DNA sequence: GTCTATAAGGAGATAGAC
DNA sequence: GTCTATCTCCTTATAGAC
């Protein structure tokens, strides 16, 4: 509860996310963000101690939520059903609120984000997700399939260019295609010992 | 035939591509490139009239080759066989010489490249390729599938983390998974008129 | 073809008033 | 919580000598 004036902090985050996604992190200066908000650069520094920290604040709780997802997946058996459920949860998360914009930002600024702590955290999480999605089948093809299912969810925004399509429809299509990819990932033997 | 000294121009391109991919276009200064080559910034400006132009030179002939690919696809019927052949040609191109690094650079610097002419050209071509890959089936799912096949080829570098795997194997796996995605794209009716 | 020197500008960040 | 003013640093790019 720190919003005494009207949530300037949140407005900064919103504008920053938009500009970072549109033009890239490096190409967006603090001056630009400030001007959009009709404040000065110095005002930004009251709310965030650096430019990096704006990105951190953007990524923070997303990272946490993905962690929870991975933890859940680990507690489940490495079956096809688990993988489907995991991806469904992930898609729900991605399509909720303005989550998508954060992922779009992430996808489009990968290189820069490598040198930002927020970026590294996100990378780790996505790698972790991909690993969970092919748990039980460590073949190269399975790894590729797992990665592509994530990308199916992410790319449903720009890859599908049909006009007037709703987010719900995008999600449905992404999951249908992803399911097919998941189906090609094998399950480990049910432990041989059956008599 | 301009290499009087030893292809400084080519050495600049090589180092620039490497650093751009590693750290991002914006984060890589001309000073840095020059230092790696043990020359001064001014020397770079003899070979390229601006930083952008280095990127242009990198992307130039790739764009042309993709154009040829698209032109070829247009001359073919929009069948599954054409799509498979198109993706095979594309994969051959991507895995030839040091092409992969250029695509990796492109994938990782999308946002920045939006404001560079070279970047826009590449974007158009990849969109064109995706369109050709789902020619004859304009359903949203088909568009997503087409996009994912391209990504399958591109991502086979980092998505497959099996050690000691060769490029040939990566390509093979990428195409296998991609084929499955292509199989879900429909073909137009063979023109009804059969008796 | 490569150098030294420098111009010109914008970036992130800080100090301290209000 | 936001301002003005300023610091420091590094960038792309150019001019002209060798």
TrEMBL record, chains A, B:
<feature type="domain" description="HTH tetR-type">
    <location>
        <begin position="6"/>
        <end position="66"/>
    </location>
</feature>
<dbReference type="InterPro" id="IPR001647">
    <property type="entry name" value="HTH_TetR"/>
</dbReference>
<feature type="DNA-binding region" description="H-T-H motif">
    <location>
        <begin position="29"/>
        <end position="48"/>
    </location>
</feature>
<dbReference type="Pfam" id="PF00440">
    <property type="entry name" value="TetR_N"/>
</dbReference>
<dbReference type="InterPro" id="IPR050109">
    <property type="entry name" value="HTH-type_TetR-like_transc_reg"/>
</dbReference>
<keyword id="KW-0238">DNA-binding</keyword>
<dbReference type="InterPro" id="IPR009057">
    <property type="entry name" value="Homeodomain-like_sf"/>
</dbReference>
<dbReference type="InterPro" id="IPR023772">
    <property type="entry name" value="DNA-bd_HTH_TetR-type_CS"/>
</dbReference>
<protein>
    <submittedName>
        <fullName>AcrR family transcriptional regulator</fullName>
    </submittedName>
</protein>
